[in-house]
Design goal:
10 helices, eight-stranded mixed β-sheet, globular
Length: 309
């Protein structure tokens, strides 16, 4: 049973213990790149088309070359097959801007050929797929829920539209702030974080989408508020609407989390983790909690469509 699988975007299976990135890869130097995290279950990638669609949208936001979705699809499916069907896996699709030295050479050629056009091709990007075991915390979060604290992100909900260069709707490699928030939560004896805006509006988790249930409604903050559109949330909504739920994209205040029937942190690998406590306040599980988790499981088992993004 393999412990890691590495496939490059050209479809080659690589040794996961051998060096892959150059020291001047811009993804490592500046976090200038994008990624997607996909659950491998039964030897197949879950909701792959939704992830490919979001990868394309993130590339557009970052002004990266359009990813070859067929090549990515092949690499992901090959990596999932190599991983096997015996256990779940965490699959990452990583795309960076490539080597800094290649971009420096391209800029030099552009300057030398000023007025005559750029000769040669654009610098190559770096793309690969890596599969590793799912962390033990995931099963605990699924079965027992998570304790959460709210933390201010220090931004307004208007920032995403006023400053698109902030890339709030793209899934970029720049995750240092998110990881710092999770470490702070651990010091506070919490499992996870819900970010809030300067207006006390609910945003998202460092690695998840926030969804609240109240009555027959499911509500998540809209993307225009500066949150990353969630693939798992989208898969849930597709199934929930078929089951008669009223699914909405609406702004939420922090107080709405306390008055909701239940609060959920949805992500591609953990799937559905119910918030069992919020800022130290215990939140009881409603009777329909198993139904919501089951709808998520059902939703991610379907391929979705790139067109959905």
């Amino acid at each position: 049973m393999v412990e890691r699988v590495l496939v490059t975007i050209d479809g080659a299976i690589r040794d996961p213990d051998a060096p892959l990135l150059y020291a001047d890869d811009i993804g490592a130097l500046r976090g200038d790149g994008i990624f997607e995290t996909v659950l491998v279950r039964g030897g197949s990638p879950c909701a792959l088309e939704l992830h490919l669609g979001r990868l394309r949208r993130s590339a557009e936001a970052m002004e990266l070359p359009a990813p070859d979705l067929d090549a990515w699809r092949f690499a992901v499916e090959l990596a999932a097959e190599e991983w096997g069907a015996e256990r779940e896996g965490l699959l990452r699709m990583v795309l960076t801007r490539g080597r800094d030295s290649d971009h420096a050479k391209a800029n030099s050629k552009s300057t030398a050929n000023a007025g005559g056009g750029l000769s040669g091709s654009e610098p190559a990007t770096t793309g690969y797929v890596l599969v590793v075991p799912v962390h033990a915390r995931v099963e605990t979060a699924r079965s027992e829920g998570v304790s959460v604290i709210t933390l201010s992100r220090g931004i307004s909900i208007d920032l995403a539209q006023a400053a698109p260069w902030q890339l709030l709707g793209a899934k970029t490699l720049s995750y240092a702030t998110n990881m710092a928030a999770l470490r702070f939560a651990q010091r506070m004896n919490a499992d996870d974080v819900i970010f809030t805006s300067t207006e006390n509006r609910v945003l998202e988790g460092p690695r998840s989408t926030v969804v609240v249930a109240r009555g027959n409604q499911l509500v998540t903050p809209p993307a225009r508020n500066g949150v990353l559109p969630g693939t798992t949330q989208r898969a849930l909504y597709v199934q929930a609407e078929k089951a008669g739920w009223d699914c909405r994209y609406e702004p939420l205040f922090t107080a709405d989390l306390i008055t909701a029937d239940s609060v959920w942190m949805l992500s591609s690998v953990t799937l559905a983790a119910r918030v069992k406590s919020l800022d130290g306040l215990r939140l009881s599980a409603p009777e329909n909690a198993p139904e919501i988790a089951a709808l998520v499981d059902r939703g991610i088992a379907l391929p979705g469509s790139v067109a959905d993004w």
